[in-house]
Amino acid sequence: MLPLRLLTPADAAAFRDIRLAGLAADPRAFSAALADEAGHDLDWFADRLADSKVFAADDGGRLLGVAGLAIPRQVNKRHKGLLWGVFVRPEARGQGLGTRLVAAVIDAARGQVEELVLGVGTYNDAAIATYRRAGFIATGFEARALRIGDIYVDEITMTLPFGRG
User: Fold this and answer.
1) C-alpha torsion sign, points 59, 102, 95, 26
2) Alpha-helix residue ranges (DSSP H) falling in the chain
3) How far apart (Å, rounded) are the C-alpha atoms in residues 25 and 50?
4) Which letter does DSSP use for residue 2 in this model?
């Protein structure tokens, strides 16, 4: 079993590689677009790693899975964390890696925020099941949350409440 680790800005190249792979593999799963992020330099990816906690499974320098935690800078929003960017490469799926990455984000968020939120496409049954097993509950729905070309994606908002501070 590969250990998980927290990425640092020094991991920008490996993070860029897996991030772009995820955006290419399932554009419906991300609010970001491959066309947007592919144009960014490594400094931009390093900044993302500096601003968020991104956990990864590292197989000798090649990242097999990632999941991020973002906590807003705005004081009035710091009670909620965002689980973002969850992706496991196809060859590493079915081994519980996504579950472990989500658990790492939950552990990092606990004690830092009152709740953890995420958005997931209604089509993504595997991801929804993973989040439910981790304790997330559906708290909202947004029709046509994303538009990728001529395809619209409905999203469920899911929340994992921790309680007050």
Assistant:
1) negative
2) 12-25, 34-37, 42-51, 97-109, 125-133
3) 25
4) P
Q: How far is CA 31 from the centre of its chain?
A: 11
CB atoms within 10 A of CB 125: 10
pLDDT in tens, 83-142: 999 999 999 999 999 999 999 999 999 999 999 999 999 999 999 999 999 999 999 999
Q: Write out the residue range of the structural domain in which residue 92 sits.
A: 4-161
Q: pTM value? A: 0.94
Question: Which position has the token pair 């439910």?
Answer: 132
Asked if 17 and 114 count as a contact pair (C-beta separation under 8 A), the reply is no
What element of type H or E holds 155? strand 151-161
Question: 29, 87 in Cβ contact below 8 A?
Answer: yes
Q: Which residues of 99-119 are buried (b: 16+ CB within 10 A; e: fewer)?
A: ebbbbbbbebbeeebebbbbb
- CATH number of the structural domain spanning residue 122: 3.40.630.30
CA distance 51 to 72: 9
Number of compact structural domains in the chain: 1
**Amino acid in the structure at residue 107:** D
